[in-house]
Design brief:
The complex is a heterodimer of chains A (251) and B (193).
Chain A: E1 5-13, E2 16-21, E3 24-30, H1 32-41, E4 47-51, H2 56-72, E5 77-80, H3 86-94, E6 99-102, H4 104-108, H5 111-120, E7 125-134, E8 137-142, E9 147-152, H6 153-163, E10 167-172, H7 184-193, E11 198-201, H8 207-216, E12 221-224, H9 226-229, H10 235-244
Helix pairs in contact in A: 1-2, 2-3
Chain B: E1 3-6, H1 13-22, E2 27-30, H2 33-37, E3 41-44, H3 50-59, H4 62-65, E4 73-76, H5 78-82, E5 84-87, E6 92-93, E7 98-104, E8 113-119, E9 134-140, E10 142-143, E11 150-156, E12 158-166, E13 169-172, H6 180-192
Parallel strand pairs in B: 1-2, 1-3, 3-4, 4-13, 5-7
Antiparallel strand pairs in B: 5-6, 7-10, 8-9, 11-12, 12-13
């Protein structure tokens, strides 16, 4: 049986791991390669690395980092942040990344999803969506949550799937950094709308929150950062607890 | 021991190379037929789309070459699928080593399947020291049905082949290079057996 995945997310700035609370107030949380090795050896099912100040110059550094990570870990990982071209993706996949995550650029250039799916296959295209609940609907935000759009989360997720996204990584900006639990209702609705895997992100604070998100909808993976980086929740312990709650988990 | 990893421009070959290196085994990423045919073992990786991968193989003349290899060949993921007759992905004629078509998962399950799934009914020395129902990492939309040559099974809506073996050819749908310590055991078995 396919297991639910637990995914630590490492936000990378200038080759260091940082964690934003509601996308601001960055705090240094360590060396990404060391963290990657630690997580890989301690039960993480997959890792996500987001280049949060992606620039052209930084792109090369990030590819180098992906290569270093790939040398050191034996689990899959996704990289994202500022990806804008087929060439960007090609370099990252060749550096050992399994999947790439695209966000703002895909909203502005939806054809980019089709392009990547055709060249590299849908299985390596993760469409990341940051959304916020405003006036009774969920709206997609761009540029790390700084720019609001008129696009509905559910419409966009649906379109992304049609265009060849292999997975949706949904971050609720309302929940991110609060440690009060995932956006279970929105996630449940999302899981009824698309037929591709969904990664839930934003709001993890307690083990119970992971339990909740896997029980409430057809969610495939849960992503978190600081609770893992600061060892507030140990991944092995979390997974044992989830398994005890009859959630399919790889131990 | 020299292992050749067939390089035909189909992504993520580097991960396989690094995984072998962690096991202390040097390998060569190459599309040179002479180098491949004189290697002790061959890994045929593949991530991506079947028809474009077959075009790349044809372009390098590897489509006729690979089925004639005599040493142990391990096809991984798309590499395994390409060893079959035909893939529904892009309606592609493949290498015809295994007498099977490659089918798309029905939409009763989420497609692609991404994540760690169990492998069972393990039948070959590639799985020495691997427990029944061990988890392996998979990411795919197409699958090889159960065959007489199936040597490991997984379930995703239906039971399907997660490993197949015929003569010197073995194919695995999962990624041993990304399947943690148990994936490493499988690579070790391929190197040593």
């Amino acid at each position: 049986m396919l297991a639910k995945r637990i995914i630590p997310c490492l936000d990378i700035k200038d080759s260091r791991t940082v964690k934003g609370v509601n996308f601001v107030d960055l705090v240094d949380a360590g060396d990404p390669v060391e963290l990657a090795k630690y997580y890989s050896a301690n039960g993480a099912d997959e890792l996500v690395f987001l280049d949060i100040n992606a620039t052209k110059e930084n792109r090369k550094t990030f590819a180098k980092l992906a290569d270093e990570i790939s040398q050191n870990i034996n689990i899959p990982f996704t990289v994202g942040g500022g990806i804008k071209s087929v060439e960007d993706v090609d370099v990252l996949l060749k550096s050992g990344a399994d999947k790439v995550s695209i966000n703002s650029y895909a909203v502005k250039n939806p054809d980019f999803i089709n392009q990547l799916a055709t060249i590299f296959g849908t299985q390596c295209v993760v469409v990341a969506i940051d959304a916020k609940y405003v006036d009774n609907d969920w709206f997609v935000y761009l540029v790390g949550g700084r720019v609001k759009t008129d696009v509905s989360l559910f419409d966009w997720a649906n379109e992304a799937e049609d265009r060849g996204a292999g997975e949706i990584l949904f971050t609720s900006m309302d929940h991110d950094g609060t440690k009060n639990g995932f956006a279970c209702q929105a996630l449940e609705k999302l899981s009824q709308i698309v037929n591709i895997p969904i990664i839930a992100s934003g709001g993890a604070g307690k083990i119970e929150h992971f339990n909740e998100v896997f029980k409430s909808g057809n969610i495939d993976a849960a992503l978190a950062a600081s609770v893992f980086h600061f060892n507030e929740i140990g991944i092995k312990h979390l997974k044992v607890e989830l398994k005890n709650n009859n959630i399919p988990i790889r131990l | 021991m020299r292992i050749a990893i067939i390089d035909y421009g189909s992504g993520n070959t580097q991960s396989v190379k690094y995984a072998l290196k962690r096991l202390g085994c040097e390998s060569l990423l190459t599309s040179d037929k002479e180098v491949i045919s004189t290697s002790d073992k061959v890994i045929f990786p593949g991530v991506g789309q079947a028809s474009s991968a077959m075009s790349k193989l044809k372009f390098k003349g590897l489509d006729i070459f690979i089925p004639n290899l005599k040493q142990p060949v391990l096809g991984i993921c798309l590499g395994m699928q390409l060893m079959c007759n035909f893939s529904e992905e892009g309606n592609t004629d493949c290498l015809k080593i295994f007498d099977s078509n490659v089918k798309r998962f029905k939409s009763t399950v989420k497609v692609p399947q991404i994540g760690w799934n169990t492998v069972f009914d393990l039948k070959t020395s590639l799985f020495d020291s691997i427990n029944e129902n061990e988890y392996m990492y998979l990411v795919h939309s197409y699958y090889v049905p159960l065959l007489a040559t199936t040597v490991a099974t997984s379930n995703y809506g239906i039971n399907y082949s997660t490993a197949i073996k015929k003569n010197n050819f073995i194919g695995v749908q999962f990624h041993p290079e990304k399947s943690g310590s148990q994936g490493e055991v499988i690579l070790k078995n391929f190197i040593n057996n």
